[in-house]
């Protein structure tokens, strides 16, 4: 009887110990990020997001580049009330090319990074060949850091209306 009691108590002790060790191991492993997803210096993230915004603006009608810039779960609410997914956005963007006599550039970019999420706000200014401003669009783009790189998950823009009426 004493041996049975010892085995029963020893068995419970062993199961409790295994459970504690397993639980501690899981907590320990979850505390460390996956390789390539570790801490990134803030300025590095800011610079990477600005570079990605510039690539996006430069290649806004290039389907192959957009495939790389936009995440699989990318969404783009548009003025019609529709929300375009990645494929719809790429199809629309690559088939509605801007006139060749206009250029676009950013003004007032503001970049905020919250861990693996980045938010970029700013203006896209469209300029005619003669240098006159043809329009402004205010935008918000949201990015996530996945698989070792930043990817756009959301974009929204609105035409800026002149305050002079």
Explain what you see.
The protein is α+β, with helices and mostly antiparallel strands and 165 residues long. The chain folds into two domains: 1-32; 42-159, Nuclear Transport Factor 2, Chain: A (Roll). Helix content is 38%, strand content 37%. The chain contains four helices and six strands; from the N terminus they run H-H-H-E-E-H-E-E-E-E. It has helices at 2-30, 42-58, 63-69, 86-95, and strands at residues 70-77, 83-85, 102-114, 117-128, 133-146, 149-159. Strands 2-1-6-5-4-3 form a six-stranded mixed beta sheet. A hairpin with a 2-residue loop joins strand 5 (133-146) and strand 6. The model is unreliable at 1-36 (pLDDT under 50).
What's the short story on this structure?
By secondary structure, this protein is an alpha+beta fold.
Whole-angstrom Rg: 26 Å
Q: Structurally, how many domains make up the residues? A: 2
What's the SSE pattern? HHHEEHEEEE
CATH architecture of the largest domain: Roll
What does the largest sheet look like?
6 strands, mixed
Secondary structure elements and their pairing?
Elements: H1 2-30, H2 42-58, H3 63-69, E1 70-77, E2 83-85, H4 86-95, E3 102-114, E4 117-128, E5 133-146, E6 149-159
Parallel strand pairs: 1-6
Antiparallel strand pairs: 1-2, 3-4, 4-5, 5-6
């Amino acid at each position: 009887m004493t041996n049975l009691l010892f085995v029963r108590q020893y068995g419970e002790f062993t199961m409790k110990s295994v459970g504690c060790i397993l639980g501690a191991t899981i907590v320990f492993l979850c505390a460390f990020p996956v390789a390539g997803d570790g801490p990134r210096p803030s300025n590095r993230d800011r610079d990477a997001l600005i570079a990605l915004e510039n690539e996006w603006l430069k290649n806004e009608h290039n389907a192959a580049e957009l495939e790389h810039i936009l995440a699989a779960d990318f969404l783009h609410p548009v003025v019609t009330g529709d929300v375009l997914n990645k494929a719809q956005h790429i199809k629309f963007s690559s088939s509605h090319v801007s006139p060749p006599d206009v250029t676009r550039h950013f003004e007032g970019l503001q970049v905020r990074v919250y861990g693996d999420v980045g938010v970029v706000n700013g203006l896209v200014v469209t300029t005619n060949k003669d240098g006159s401003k043809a329009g402004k669009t205010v935008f918000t783009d949201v990015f996530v850091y996945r698989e070792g790189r930043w990817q756009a998950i959301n974009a929204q823009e609105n035409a800026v209306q002149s305050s002079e009426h």
